[in-house]
Amino acid sequence: MKKGINSLKTIRHDIEALLPMTLGSLALFLCIGYFVYVVVKTTQVNYLSNQQIAEEEARINELEDELRFMKFQINYFKTTSFKEKEAREKLGYRAPGEKVVSLPLDKPEEKVADGAIEDEKIRVPNQHLWWAYFFGE
Predict the structure, then answer these.
(1) 88: which DSSP letter?
(2) I want to staple 87 with a disulfide (CB 3.0 to 4.6 A). Which of 23, 24, 37, 93 is the partner?
(3) What does the alpha-carbon distance between residue 28 and residue 36 come to, in Å, rounded to a whole number?
(4) What confidence tens digit (pLDDT) does each residue in 95-114 have?
């Protein structure tokens, strides 16, 4: 029996020599480490959940805006002004007593780009024009 106790003491002495702490301290250290791991993991899951919630809320807002726009379009399509406009454009209808004028399309050679027209040259400098405006010369 003494031999078994001595072997346990030597094993315990060997473990204490390898570890700079007692078994109780090691168990406490492992528990604290586990709790830190659990807290970090829970915080990470919470952060990711909050991100997903924010993304879904943004998506909900976009869909609500789209829904409002579609309701507006539906109401607009029900109006008589829209129906009249579509009838004029697509079916060529006109109101009673209205005269329709058809204008010829512009030919490509008649069209001139804005940059192609040269600005008129100002012959009198601007400061002279202002002087004449204020002092009447």
Answers:
(1) I
(2) 93
(3) 12
(4) 788 877 777 887 777 676 66
Q: Each residue of 48-77: b (16+ CB within 10 Å) or e?
A: eeeeeeeeeeeeeeeeeeeeeeeeeeeeee
DSSP 8-state code for residue 87: I
Show the tokens assigned to 76. Answer: 């607009």
Residues 83 and 75: beta-carbon distance below 8 Å: no
At 21, the amino acid letter reads: M
pLDDT of residue 99: 79
Low-confidence residues in the chain, pLDDT < 50: none
Q: Is 88 exposed, middle or buried (0-12, 13-18, 19+ CB in 10 A)?
A: middle
